[in-house]
Specification:
The complex is a heterotrimer of chains A (567), B (245) and C (297). In chain A, strand 9 and strand 10 form a beta hairpin. Chain A has 567 residues and is α/β, with parallel strands linked by helices. Chain A is built from 24 helices and ten strands. With 245 residues, chain B is α/β, with parallel strands linked by helices. In chain B, strand 4 (55-60) and strand 5 (63-64) form a beta hairpin. The termini of chain B are far apart.
Chain lengths: 567, 245, 297
């Protein structure tokens, strides 16, 4: 053991350093933030540690903390500067930052040692310390991809708009991604200097980034364990490459290319797919029910005394008040002076042909567009200017026109997401008991929409109609006061429409306030208490469904002028 | 004749169009109506080659064009004017028209554009304006002009009324009539159905991806029956029972 | 000294212009930021270098080798990497990550092969019939190579500008950049057009490579990556898809670098491009000449 340890010491230490560096790339990418700033922060950390060690007598742990802080701060700053950038723009801008760090190191004079770098940065280093640091980083990374945080970061990556509607402060998560990435990279830099006693501008070249990225991409960027596998493979393999040693960089790049094109989820993704295939086969041979069986009930479940879903009583008075709302795009008045109020427990429908402004109205209600005029009041509180994510936390849930489920999460996890930040319960660190309660709530919500038995499937394994019902489950699981539905039956067949209509009606009977935007006149007339009909951004009729449908302007908007005149 | 027989289109698992058949003769107008999500747009897009049908046949003058890529379908004389117009906003009006004439013979382009300017004089006046700066009605004219520049035998119109004021749409309807009068067969998808009915020779009503009614426009003379079919039974019974009671 | 600075700026800008025009064409038409553009440039030089070891190359011969190698590699890159990714990918976010990674992988592959074969030493063209002639113009020095570079850059970018503005296929290219689906409805074969644009872009990278090696005698494997970042800075500065923007961007960067090289020890010169990127992205993300997206009403 000792002999093995002694002879492989360099590889063991490298593994820990590369793991921390690779995680500094994997974590932000896993969150959908394509930053390459890790390389620059690695340099910042390494140089900070080297300079402090040479010039001051500070204790080592203090130097580590200062260097990590420097990396985190600089990375956060980059994040703030690049707040408006995404995708490739962000990748290139952060790469530019990396190269600037290199140029600064070269021009740092005696402070950074110029092109020669800093040598003889000697200090005691224990492999155990390195192992502890790498272990903490890995544990933190794994913690962050599980549970509430894991769900939230998946939403931030795959559908930020959805995340915001579920009460997730997407911007703060992006800042966190930059900060964590900078801190880890700087930590890797300190570890590097400790082990190698030297840092030069050559160490922060693009090539180092490619190596770390190879580990992340080939290992699987969605999983920290995958990254660990990548780090181990690419640290321990090269010494055994023998005559192929000189081909190392070529092989790494080829693997990145192959992984990016053919296996974008990397080794971890392949392993996960294999495991689920084996489970699937076992389930099939065991003869248990598959998705379709038992998933579609004969009728939507009857209203039940919700176990975890209970609405605290609120003051009387209108739930939603919209006053003289106007939204303009350039010169176009998409919504023009629309007012209405919705009472508690009401099912309120907004009707109108394409381009009539009803979707824009909904976007304004959910804070996706800013009105130029007017007020939006929920429960007597002016919400016209509040942040999008804050709206979700006030008991105002919504669904979207298209299916917005996260494919990386299971059905039940998608539903849990609806309770993570917008739920009524305690939102600070949940205890085990609260977690169990949340789980029960999610199962109850799924049962409520008639989807018991689908919990552990992934959304794409469900039919379109079932997927839309999962979205309703996600919207009601946090026991909202108001539910806004954007064309909930679009693309559904007749039976599915009838089922959804009955479900919405029964939700209303339980006391939920619903605002429904739909084209389906038939359904709107049959289930809504009141209707608002819109055309060209303006209200054309407002009142009981029968009156609204009989209104000449509505018939004209839907059927053309002649119909209106003839009638 | 442009003929569609038993067309099926799927988006992944979702069946968007299930067995739609329709036809249009040169110079005639076939109106396709139905609520949102009924499969109207998907039908047109599948004819134009933007979606590959899972089943069914599309023929032009007897020649099958099913599943051919969009850039080939144009060359068979079938052009789609998409929903929301989708003109090339940064390009000028003239450049948009030249783009429309991409498949035309080079010596015909000038002639085509002259004819389009005759049909839509407003486009000539604004020929050097970036198309994004035109008004909604003008953009619709440009979208028509761009389609005409390909010298098609058939034009597919997807919701030409979208986002237009009723008065503007009346002039758009006029130009659709004029296009048909030049011998072009037109398949038109509309929500704003009644206004277009006078133009149509044939009507197809789609519901949930299937044909609910197909026949001559005259068969829909009774406005009441028409409304029932379009809006569904219960909407009307609800409205009527309220009024009666 | 002013005249000498002007000559240096213009010839440097010409190199940048040829390189960035190729990036901008691909980016503006397909939305792909080709991360491997710098390696196409490097591989073309390396190919000419290999040929020049065996036989004596004329100036035109070296250019032909560079252009062909650049174009062929660009087409290969599109077929084996970008096109495969675009056909298999589920959503736009993963497409972006995968396109970027595929570009980095392809770039790394070419650079690593060249670095391995050259042991990362500088390399150039050993056997060439070309002779550099230096002229004295009112006290400023200018070589015949620089004159060729400026003439070629001006001629080619003007030609591409006229092509995009006046011809049917140039119009189709711009239309694809605006709305690829509608362009295909008008009869444009999108796949073939994209391959053509990749080939032109690669040919420009190859041409830039051979010209640069005649100007500076030798390059190292990292030259490509540095030039890639500069190309990105130029395109971002001018605005994606704008030819005028690329010209202004190239001149701005060349001028800034020339000034720094002339009036400082020059070690900061590489930071100019990177700093420009950050400033431009902060103040005007659509670039100086780019248009903000026209919102559909």
């Amino acid at each position: 053991m000792t002999v093995w340890y002694e002879s492989n010491l360099i590889l063991i230490q490298s593994t820990f350093i590369f793991l921390v560096l690779a995680l500094s790339i994997q974590i932000p990418v896993r969150w959908g933030v394509l930053t390459f700033g890790g390389l620059g922060c690695f340099g910042v950390g390494a140089y900070t540690a080297a300079i402090l060690t040479i010039r001051t007598g500070l204790p080592q742990f203090l130097i580590l903390i200062l260097a990590v802080l420097a990396g985190a701060l600089i990375s956060l700053l980059i994040g703030l500067v690049c707040a408006r950038l995404d995708g490739m723009y962000l990748a290139m801008a952060t790469l530019a930052f990396d190269l600037i760090v290199g140029v600064v190191a070269i021009n740092g004079g005696s402070l950074t040692g110029g092109v020669d770098g800093l040598y003889g940065v000697t200090a005691d280093v224990h492999t155990a310390t390195l192992a502890a640091l790498a272990g903490i980083a890995l544990a933190a990374a794994i913690y962050m991809q599980r549970g509430r945080l894991g769900r939230a970061t998946t939403a931030v990556r795959d559908d930020p708009e959805l995340g915001v509607s579920l009460g997730i402060n997407v911007r703060r998560f992006r800042h966190m991604a930059f900060t964590i990435s900078g801190a880890l990279a700087a930590c890797a830099g300190v570890m590097y200097v400790r082990v190698n006693t030297t840092i030069t501008p050559d160490n922060i070249q693009f090539g180092a980034l490619v190596v770390a990225m190879t580990m992340v991409i080939v290992g699987g960027w969605k999983s920290s364990l995958g990254t660990l596998a990548g780090v181990i493979i690419f640290t321990w393999l090269p010494p055994h490459l023998g005559m192929f040693q000189t081909w190392q960089a070529v092989i790494y790049s080829a693997l990145v290319l192959v992984a990016a094109v053919l296996v974008p989820t990397g080794a971890a993704g392949v392993a996960r797919a294999a495991v689920s295939r084996i489970r699937e086969r076992r389930r099939r041979t065991a003869g248990t029910a598959t998705v379709s069986a038992g998933a579609v009930p004969e009728a939507p479940a009857a209203p039940r005394p919700a176990a975890g879903i209970q609405r605290p009583p609120r003051d009387a008075g209108p739930v939603v008040e919209v006053q003289h709302l106007a939204v303009h795009f350039g010169g176009v008045k998409a919504v023009d002076d629309v007012s209405f109020t919705v009472q508690r427990g009401e099912l309120f429908g907004i009707l109108g042909p394409n381009g009539s402004g009803k979707s824009t109205l909904l976007a304004a209600l959910t804070r996706f567009v800013d009105p130029v005029k007017g007020r939006i009041v929920f429960y007597g509180e002016d919400c016209t200017g509040i942040a999008q994510y804050a709206l979700g936390r006030r008991g105002i849930a919504r669904t979207f026109q298209t299916v917005r489920l996260l494919e990386d999460l299971r059905v039940v996890e998608n539903v849990l997401l609806g309770n993570d930040r917008t739920g009524r319960g305690d939102r600070s660190r949940p205890s085990a008991r609260q977690k169990a309660a949340r789980w029960d709530d999610a199962l109850a919500a799924l049962a409520r929409v008639g989807l018991q038995g689908t919990e552990l499937h992934h959304p794409s394994e469900l039919s379109y109609g079932q997927q839309r019902r999962v979205e309703i489950a996600r919207a009601i699981v946090g026991a909202p006061d108001v539910l806004l539905l954007d064309e909930p039956v679009a693309g559904m067949n007749r039976e599915e429409r009838v089922e959804i209509a009955a479900l919405l009606r029964s939700l209303k009977d339980e006391g939920l306030t619903l605002i429904l935007v739909e084209h389906d006149v038939e359904m709107m007339a049959s289930i809504c208490d009141r209707l608002l009909a819109m055309n060209s951004g303006q209200e054309i009729a407002h009142g009981a469904p029968a009156d609204v449908l009989a209104h000449p302007a509505v018939r004209e908007a839907y059927l053309g002028r002649r119909a209106a005149i003839d009638a | 004749m442009l003929e569609v027989a038993d067309l099926h289109v799927h988006y992944g698992k979702l069946a968007a169009v299930q067995g739609v058949s329709l036809r249009v003769e040169p110079g005639a107008v076939t109106l396709v109506i139905g609520v949102n999500g009924a499969g109207k747009s998907t039908t047109l897009r599948a004819i134009a080659g933007l979606h590959r049908p899972t089943r069914g046949v599309v023929t032009v003058e007897g020649k099958a064009i099913t599943g051919r890529p969009a850039h080939d379908v144009v060359r068979e004389g079938v052009v789609l004017v998409p929903e929301g117009r989708r003109i090339f906003a940064p390009l000028t009006v003239l450049e948009n028209l030249r783009m429309g004439a991409y498949t035309a013979k080079r010596d015909q382009v000038a002639e085509s554009i002259r004819e389009i300017f005759e049909l839509f004089p407003i486009l000539q006046k604004r020929r050097s304006t970036p198309a994004g700066l035109l008004s909604g009605g003008e953009q619709q004219m440009l979208a028509f002009g761009r389609a005409l520049a390909a010298r098609p035998k058939y034009i597919l119109l997807d919701e030409p009324s979208m986002g237009l004021a009723p008065a503007v749409f009346d002039t758009v309807l006029d130009s659709i009539g004029r296009m048909a009068a030049t011998g072009i067969g037109i398949v038109m998808v509309e929500q704003n159905a009644e206004a277009c009915l006078s133009l149509a020779n044939d009507v197809v009503i789609l519901a949930q991806g299937e044909v609910a009614f197909a026949g001559a426009a005259g068969a829909l003379q009774s406005e009441h029956a028409f409304l029932r079919t379009l809006l569904g039974e219960s909407a009307f019974s609800a409205a009527e029972s309220e009024r009666d009671g | 000294m002013f005249l000498q600075d002007a000559i240096n700026t213009v010839s440097l800008a010409s190199i940048y212009l040829l390189f960035a025009t190729g990036m901008s064409l691909v980016w503006g038409t397909t939305g792909i930021l080709n991360f491997a553009h710098g390696s196409l440039f490097l591989a073309s030089i390396y190919a000419a270098h290999i040929v020049a070891l065996e036989t004596t190359l004329s100036f035109a011969g070296a250019i032909i080798v560079g252009v062909i190698v650049g174009a062929v590699l660009a087409v290969v890159l599109y077929v084996v990497a970008f096109n495969l990714v675009l056909r298999r990918v589920r959503d736009k976010a993963s497409a972006e990550l995968q396109i970027l990674m595929a570009g980095i992988g392809f770039d790394g592959l070419l650079v690593a092969i060249i670095a391995r074969n050259t042991l990362s030493e500088p390399f150039g063209l050993s056997n060439t019939t070309y002779r550099t002639v230096t002229y004295d113009v009112f006290g400023a020095f200018v070589t015949n190579t620089r004159i060729y570079v400026v003439i070629l850059a001006l001629a080619l970018t003007t030609a591409i500008g006229v092509w995009a503005k006046r011809t049917r296929s140039g119009l189709a290219m711009r239309a694809i950049g605006v709305d690829p689906e509608i362009a295909s409805l008008m009869g444009v074969n999108r796949g073939r057009m994209t391959l053509g644009i990749m080939a032109i872009s690669g040919a420009l990278a190859g041409l830039t490579g051979v010209l640069l090696v005649y100007v500076s005698a030798a390059v190292v494997p990292t030259t490509g990556t540095n030039l890639l970042i500069k190309g990105f800075a130029i395109v971002v500065l001018g605005g994606v898809g704008s030819m005028t923007g690329v010209v202004i961007g190239a001149l701005t960067l060349a001028l800034a670098e020339t000034i720094i090289n002339t009036y400082t020890p020059g070690t900061w010169v590489n930071a100019v491009a990177f700093g420009l990127i950050l400033i431009v992205l902060l103040l005007r993300p659509q670039g100086l000449f780019g248009k903000k997206e026209v919102r559909r009403t």
